[in-house]
């Protein structure tokens, strides 16, 4: 039970003062693959109709752990025509952009997931189509929204080519990867992606989830969905460890990485452990010139949703103080069931300067908006 209670009405929130909000994680979704028909070759549409989209996944059909609500969606986010939540721009405007005073929102298209497909050519074609679809259906119709470049990240050169295709395209603000790839993302097979992102000035957003072909644990599939969803924070810790120790940040010193929907309460303790181990075993990593924690604090950002809420609220302040108030960006995760409203998301008192950083200015700085 939390005993450190804050009276909501006594707090000044972003929404109370009508501060324009930057939302770092909004999920658009196609109603069906037919939405992509204008942007895909007929051969790929026929392939999908005949064989389906086969991700690196140990099950024949559907998610490993079906959720109470299909796709983890809010019950009120279903459009009246019965199409998928996240597919209706008018409803998104009403429920999110207007209601929460969102002045800048980042679209993260994670379903369908082009990077998780077993067929790499199909993944590349799907990524290209999803990017063109984002422009046609979202960003040119709503100036407050910007896209993330979807890539088939298991094919580094093809992914890099897709990033280059959108170099200088104002419709996009970052490159999108998923945390559960077939190998830890620091591996050199993914370096062409980071090189292209750095070259074109794009941050790389790494969103939790995806299909890498393996269970979330190191020893098999867990019994319950709660284990699966809790394990994604551990997966993101592994991703960050890989990026640091494999030397990605040393090799690409201008690269910005944003961990999306990964939590952030684990960041200080992980960095302490990495610093300790690096101090004792640094001879194995001659390419690393800085403490791991220094690297993280200079090249990595995090989104707020989902936010850990410790028993003592002050501990949340301590965590953010350590990470840095310039490293955290607000996110709603619309239209999912664990959506965070900016008026209620932060259970601590913060200064006006910190509020502007977290709810708007950090995202503006990271994405150059």
Structural commentary:
- With 369 residues, the chain is of the alpha/beta class.
- The chain has one domain: Alpha-Beta Barrel (TIM Barrel), CATH 3.20.20.140.
- It contains 11 helices and 8 strands.
- The N terminus is likely disordered.
Search tags:
TIM Barrel, about 375 residues, 11 helices, eight-stranded parallel beta sheet, about 10% strand, alpha/beta
Distance between the termini: 40 Å
- Per DSSP E runs of 2 or more residues, the count of β-strands stands at 8
Mean pLDDT: 92
**CATH superfamily membership:** Metal-dependent hydrolases
List the quaternary state of the chains.
Answer: single chain
Can you give the helix content as a percent range?
25-40%
Rg, Å, rounded: 20 Å
Topology:
Elements: E1 21-26, H1 42-51, H2 89-97, E2 102-107, H3 120-139, E3 145-150, H4 156-165, E4 172-178, H5 191-200, E5 204-207, H6 225-245, H7 248-251, E6 257-260, H8 267-281, H9 292-299, E7 300-303, H10 313-323, E8 328-329, H11 352-367
Parallel strand pairs: 1-2, 2-3, 3-4, 4-5, 5-6, 6-7, 7-8
Helix pairs in contact: 4-5
Brief overview:
The protein has helices at residues 42-51, 89-97, 120-139, 156-165, 191-200, 225-245, 248-251, 267-281, 292-299, 313-323, 352-367; strands spanning 21-26, 102-107, 145-150, 172-178, 204-207, 257-260, 300-303, 328-329.
């Amino acid at each position: 039970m939390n005993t450190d209670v804050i009276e909501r009405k006594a707090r000044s929130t972003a929404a109370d003062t009508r501060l324009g909000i930057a939302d770092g994680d909004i999920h658009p979704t196609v109603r069906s693959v037919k939405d992509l028909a204008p942007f895909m070759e007929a051969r790929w549409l026929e392939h999908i109709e005949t064989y389906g989209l086969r991700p690196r996944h140990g099950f024949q059909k559907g998610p490993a752990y079906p959720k109470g609500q299909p796709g983890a969606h809010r019950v009120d986010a279903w459009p009246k025509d019965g199409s998928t939540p996240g597919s209706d721009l008018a409803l998104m405007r009403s429920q999110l952009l207007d209601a929460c005073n969102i002045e800048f929102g980042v679209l993260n298209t994670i379903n369908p997931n082009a990077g998780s497909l077993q067929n790499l050519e199909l993944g590349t074609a799907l990524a290209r189509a999803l990017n063109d679809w984002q422009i046609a259906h979202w960003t040119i119709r709503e100036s407050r929204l910007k896209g993330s470049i979807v890539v088939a990240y298991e094919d580094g050169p093809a992914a890099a080519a897709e990033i280059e295709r959108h170099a200088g395209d104002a419709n996009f603000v970052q490159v999108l990867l998923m945390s559960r790839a077939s190998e830890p993302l620091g591996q050199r097979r993914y370096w062409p992606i980071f090189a292209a992102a750095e070259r074109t000035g794009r941050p790389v957003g790494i969103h939790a989830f995806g299909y890498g072909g393996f269970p979330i644990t190191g020893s098999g599939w867990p019994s319950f969905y709660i284990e699966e969803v809790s394990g994604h924070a551990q997966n993101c810790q592994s991703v960050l460890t890989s990026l640091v120790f494999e030397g990605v940040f040393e090799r690409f010193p201008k690269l910005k990485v944003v961990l999306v929907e990964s939590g952030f309460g684990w960041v200080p303790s992980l960095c302490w452990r990495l610093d300790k181990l690096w101090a004792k075993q640094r001879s194995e990593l001659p390419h690393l010139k800085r403490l791991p924690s220094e690297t993280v604090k200079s090249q990595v950002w995090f989104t707020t949703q989902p936010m850990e809420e410790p028993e003592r609220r002050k501990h949340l302040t301590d965590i953010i103080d350590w990470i840095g108030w310039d490293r955290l960006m607000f996110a709603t995760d619309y239209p999912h069931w664990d959506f965070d409203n900016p008026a209620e998301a932060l259970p601590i008192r913060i200064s006006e300067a910190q509020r502007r950083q977290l709810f708007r200015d950090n995202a503006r700085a990271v994405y150059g908006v």
